[in-house]
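If your schedule permits, I should be very grateful for your opinion on a structural question. I would ask you to consider whether the tokens describe a fold that such a sequence might reasonably adopt. Thank you for your consideration; the sequence and its tokens are set out here.
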Amino acid sequence: MTFTSDTYQQLNRLQQVCLKQNIPFASYRLPLENEIITLVQHHSLPVKLDSLQDIDQHVGFIVSPFNETAQYGTYLLEPDCVFFSNEIDDIYIQKLADNTRFLSEKKASETTIQTTLSEDFINQVQEAKQAMEADEFHKVVLSKVRLEKLNDDFQPDTFFLKLCEKYPHAFVYLIQLPGVGCWMGATPEPLITVEDKIVKTVSLAGTQISTGDSIDSYTWSDKEVEEQGIVTGFVEQILRSLNVENYNKTGPMNYQAANLIHLKTAFEFSETDVKNRLGDFLKALHPTPSVGGLPKAEARNFILGNEKHDRSYYTGFLGPINIEQKSNVFVNLRCLQLFANQFVLYSGAGITTSSVAEKEWIETDNKMMTLMNVMTTPNP
């Protein structure tokens, strides 16, 4: 992807003004597309949703946490203006720069999150395997966090464009919402997309570092094949429970996302099956076994009872709803949360009875490098 200097400067100004004035906004770039779309809500605050019912009737950007609590809820940014990357208006940017109505909104400047220790993560993996051997659940995804100091010259808008260029196959975003905070990411996993009367979803599991070899040359262990099969079976069960019978299934196949290779199975079916039921599908699919585990309730309870950090919006879902006649909701992976002088990286790994704790720790490190590799690249 290439940007003209004028396009870069205008997008830079728009995002910087919104960040400085604490104006709710979401900038995003869909996989394999060039257009960057920015939604700005400057007349009112994003709505906190009590349920996902009737979400199909709304236009905006949805952000939902891994586990809803009093502190972390589902929000919908309903834009007052939609900007495309080559159509950003100078006069409108100046109006936003003069907007002070959101400056009084509380904005987190630091975090109490602490970096996950390797011994804690390894112990959690061992405890999870013992629980699975006792038949409490079949799979669980354990995550970790890493707190880092921001460089003095870090600019979110510049980092966003670097992510767009580095990871063309990912959903790249930069968002700021009251109640949610400021997040950025390059996530490989769509939860559900609706476009041209076709609905798509995937099952994604297994992780290897790309070596530059042909995509078909990567092979998988029994553990990784088992994990992918668990996720695929879950998606098929959800489709049947929602009375979707005529779907096309492709895979499993090798799939590259950023610096990693995954196993993916793709599903497609008619938009008529999801008509006025997008919220039902989101609720049924989330959290998928690729971020939670199976059975859903038992795995989630283990996560909430054992992880020492709150996932917040990591492994939740987010994306545009009914923008340009398309809905693209993604699982929030390969992401970071921004604070004034720090940032928090999140990553996780699927645990089954055949998992080796030390290898899972390395896998989570590899996933964090998706963003760290770009973070450490000098600005142009």
Summary: DSSP finds eight helices and 18 strands in the chain. The chain has one domain: 5-375.
